[in-house]
Amino acid sequence: MRLLIVNWQDRENPQSGGAELHLHEVFGRIAAKGHSVDLLCSGFANAPARVKLDGIQVYRTGGRYSFQFAAKAFYKKNLKRNQYDVIVEDLNKIPLFTTRWKAANTVALVHHLFGSTAFREATPPVAALVWLSEKPIARMYGNTPFQSVSDSTTQDLVQRGIPRQNIRVIYNGVDTKSLTPGLAERSPTPLFSYLGRIKKYKRIDLVISAFAKVQLRDARLEIAGAGDYRPALEKLVDRLGLGSRVRFLGRISEAEKLALLRRSWATVLASPKEGWGISNLESAAC
Known about the structure:
Blueprint: E1 2-6, H1 18-32, E2 36-41, E3 50-53, E4 56-60, H2 67-79, E5 86-90, E6 106-110, H3 118-121, H4 124-134, H5 137-141, E7 146-148, H6 151-159, E8 167-169, E9 191-195, H7 204-211, E10 220-224, H8 230-239, E11 246-250, H9 254-263, E12 266-267, H10 279-285
Parallel strand pairs: 1-2, 1-5, 2-4, 5-6, 6-7, 7-8, 9-10, 9-12, 10-11
Antiparallel strand pairs: 3-4
């Protein structure tokens, strides 16, 4: 079978997160079984236009703010001739309406839609664009099969007009061979952690503000991940007098992630819009 995945980013993109981890874990395994899997996504600074990752042939076009304009043209010029059996569109950020690309079959994969949450992250014009672009999903995708990762995402899709019978829920999973408990590595003092992208809509500010109320002087909070909201959070930490108790780790490796989850007493997540995040599953596995 020949598959084309359409997603805004691949896992090497500095803006990548759980959706990209999910994409490469799932479709990398499909490629390993002998199927042909291509990925059409946006580019980023100094990124090659074409690369192979996890057995997936990756094609990059456009950028973070232009991919929605470049994707269809690139597909028509370079990829349509491949006659894919299925196009899988990961509905992430602005829908690309691939149902109009006239492929043999199209499937929509949804972790979560932003809705009004977009206004917590982006500037008003960009947030309005995201919010408005999600409005015609039911009309544009018609009877397209949907894969949802959670019951809450399914409920959101139904409320937007997608027939429930067109939605199949396939829950997220994690690699429990590499993510395992390590009780001997647990921190001797209370340690809480956040793992994920550092974005405004993730509401890490709530995590920090709640931690400030913890009455244990030896308690610590470690925040792992990269994103443009870090400077604002660092100012919040300074304002609350938590500089010696809160540490920003930046983007960490898989080995560092395992060590963080093992030494943490609990992982704290406050995002109002995740569908069903992968970080909580990774934490539970450790």
